[in-house]
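In the current project phase, our protein records have gained a structure token line. A sample record follows, to show the layout:
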Amino acid sequence: MTKEELIELLKELNVPLSESTPKDNDMEEEIRIHFWDYIWEDITASGSNYNTNVTYQISVVADRPRHPKLIELKKKLNELGLFPIIQHEHSAEKRRVHSFFSLEVLENV
């Protein structure tokens, strides 16, 4: 998967989307997806169309566990042969569920 394909997949969900870490004022929405890169690994094989494997964190902040859009995202990834381990943390005081996983994509960095 490339970064462009990742962005298109996330846009298909029709929810607010940001290429950044979550901000406090984003926490009031029903659901919001954030994604950002945190690992760059150079591809050293010759003839590669892309020069870097980039690992992104995909964070889904929602007002309830197992939000239907999170389930939809999981199914879309599974259909592409991608099976990330999705972790969850609950914020009782903010009444939000943060579900997150990492995904490696190809980029020219």
Summary: The helical segments are 3-11, 68-79. Residues 63 and 92 are 11 Å apart (CA to CA). The chain has a mean pLDDT of 91.
